[in-house]
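Sorry to interrupt, but I need a hand with the structure work. Leave the record below and I will have a look:
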Amino acid sequence: MMSSQPPTPASGHASSAEISARERRSFDRLVNFTDAVVAIGITLQLLPLIDIDGPTGDETVWQVISTNSGQITAFVLSFVVVILMWRNHNAVFNSLRRTDGIIFRLNVLWLILVVFLPWPTAMYGTASNDVVAGADGVGLLYWWTLAAISGVGSLIAVHARRTPTLLEPGEAEIVEATHVANRWRGIIFFSAFILIGVVSEFAPGIAPFLAFGLIPADIIVSRSGKKAKEQA
């Protein structure tokens, strides 16, 4: 008499698409922790502005804004750049289903840099108010911290692409199709921050305005990546 029971899969040959509940919880907690730390880092950017006194006597609010334009510009710039880099970081993590030791360590380093950024941002804003934004390496520290955040984020994306077992089923094709656009985004951001840091030492007045050029560059690269994703 033939058995009606289905064959039992051999031990150690479980589907590569399967992950344990423990792995899923660990990944979800890492994502939640990362988002919380980024939110704190962005909030810390605002603290120097809270210490700015309002108008007194015959002073107007516009004069206060003008006097503290360096701090305000540094806050807006850091906020926009961190949001752009968090968006790219989020896109990588959305393609993952688990992490490994390398992703974890790179992510910790990325978070350290994000929560460190408010300090050089505050110094850079204060220096800009005093028209010495490039003096004593303040500009280099600020812009090269942004370069480090961008660079580490790119390393996370590269490792994820090279380790398909970390990706959700079906994401490998999309990651492969969009990796050229993502690579160029990383190169552009990293190189721009390094260059702007050097420029800030010699022409501090124009350095912040150079960074705003990254916004249209990011839009162009994003559109290229979107087209590649649609064709995948």
